[in-house]
Design brief:
By secondary structure, the protein is of the alpha/beta class. 35% of the residues lie in helices and 15% in strands. The protein contains 10 helices and 8 strands.
Length: 286
């Protein structure tokens, strides 16, 4: 990851991408797991109708979802839908469901501010809020950006990476100009990067040439990330060399985006860190 100085005072982070398949949800879950190992109170808001983050966080019950919250949109109503995740530690969840797709077409004058209102007085209860946006720049992503302090653009080392990241940054700029002046572009992270592949090296150089200091670095392509998600546990509890590499990268990214404050380090929570999960030995880094 980049060695740049951290951005202080950030709490609500929206992770967005222009298209699916770049592992945006994996990045959100990796950051949530990294925060949990530090015993930071973390809320994941699943704003993607595919509900992959919800499935991986495996809540025991979800009587209400983000769809209900956006429909109601009263100040603070999100607290009614937040549930503990199935992960050990300090991660809570505002779950998603397919019905959330109906909110994506909302074009009413106040539609973009519905999540922000719903989180009023709620986000402050957490050390970190991570919003998993759908893989588009539509109305649900606008809701996330209106509610966020920081936007994290997730891309991949491909031919379309520069154009996709540029469009995402333009969307961030529009929201900052028209409704959320406190929103900042936290940077761009490339996911599923293999530094031994010449194509990936070339695309990373291309991204750095286009965006300079906004590039936060690269997250390694490790199967352990997907394996942990399939087992509904944080990758931080997965026992393999590849998992350790991924965890180091997520720790560095979290430090860059949301460094711990003095009050967090004073350890209000004594919840234990996630337990390790044993898996069979496999060939190569996983």
């Amino acid at each position: 990851m980049s060695s740049q100085s951290p951005i202080p005072g950030r709490r609500v982070i929206a992770a967005l991408s222009l298209k699916g398949g770049v592992g945006k949800t994996s990045v959100v879950l990796g950051l949530a797991g990294a925060a949990a190992t530090q015993r930071r109170r973390t809320l994941v808001v699943d704003l993607d109708p595919q509900a992959n983050a919800t499935a991986a966080l495996d809540p025991r019950e979800a009587p209400f979802t983000a769809s209900d919250v956006l429909f109601d949109a009263r100040p603070g109503i999100a607290s009614e839908a937040i549930v503990p995740s199935g992960w050990p530690g300090t991660v809570s969840l505002l779950p998603s469901e397919r019905a959330l797709e109906h909110r994506a077409g909302d074009a009413s004058p106040d539609s973009a501010g519905r999540l922000r209102r719903a989180l009023e007085g709620v986000a402050e209860d957490y050390d970190l809020v991570l919003i998993d946006c759908p893989p588009s720049l539509g109305e649900l992503t606008r809701n996330a950006l209106f509610a966020a302090d920081l936007a994290l653009v997730v891309t991949e080392p491909s031919f379309f990476a520069v154009a996709a990241a540029q469009q995402a940054l333009e969307a961030v700029g529009l929201v900052r100009e028209h409704g959320n002046p406190s929103l900042q572009a936290g940077g761009i992270v490339a996911n599923r990067v293999r530094p031994t592949l010449p194509e990936h090296v070339f695309r990373m150089d291309e991204l750095r040439a286009a965006f300079g200091g906004l590039i936060l670095g690269a997250l390694p392509d490790r199967s352990a990330v997907q394996q942990a998600q399939g087992a509904c546990v944080p990758v931080q509890s997965w026992q393999s060399h590849g998992a350790k590499e991924a965890c180091l990268a997520f720790d560095a990214l979290l430090k860059r985006l949301a460094p711990r404050t003095g009050s967090e380090m004073s350890a209000r929570s004594v919840t234990p860190t996630p337990k390790s999960v044993e898996i069979p030995a496999q060939g190569g880094a996983s």
